[in-house]
Amino acid sequence: MSRPALVLELLALPKAVPEVRQAVRDYLGTPCPEAQLCASELLTNVIAHVGEATPVTVRLFRTPDGRIRLEVTDPDPHAWLIARRPDADDESGRGLLLLDAVARRWGVWLTPAGKTVWCELSGP
Question: Looking at the chain, which terminus has fewer C-beta neighbours within 10 angstroms, N or C?
Fold first, then answer.
């Protein structure tokens, strides 16, 4: 029988980022830097582009084939994700590039009620 998903409903605040990273580690039962990095980047994107204190839902579970799936849902269907090509001196703009580099695949579901950004990673 598969383990139930980790579901966190929280406000997108800077203090929540390390808390979510720790929850990901605790749920997986072992360090998984890729999953923790993706969780940090997706939550940070909400803070930066949708707004601090936005309500979000973070879901983490294993797929039937053993992959790790992470989903971050926010209520803004109009905030599009754009992978930037930052200059060497830019201090931000690398989040989606990191996600693309470590995830096996990722995407965005848009609905009238908001969006879910998801990614799948190999298991630890």
Answer: N
Measured CA to CA, the distance from residue 28 to residue 34 in angstroms comes to 12
Q: Which fold has domain 6-121?
A: Heat Shock Protein 90 (3.30.565)
User: Helix, strand or coil for residue 72?
Assistant: strand
Residue 122 CA: distances (Å) to CA of 3, 45, 61, 70, 119 = 17, 22, 12, 11, 10
Say if residues 67 and 123 touch (Cβ distance below 8 Å). yes
CA 109 to chain centre: 13
Q: How far apart are CA 50 and CA 48, in angstroms?
A: 6
Which position has the token pair 């965005």? 108
Residue spans of the domains in the chain: they are 6-121
Query: pLDDT tens for residues 55-98?
Result: 999 999 999 999 999 999 999 987 666 555 655 554 555 567 78
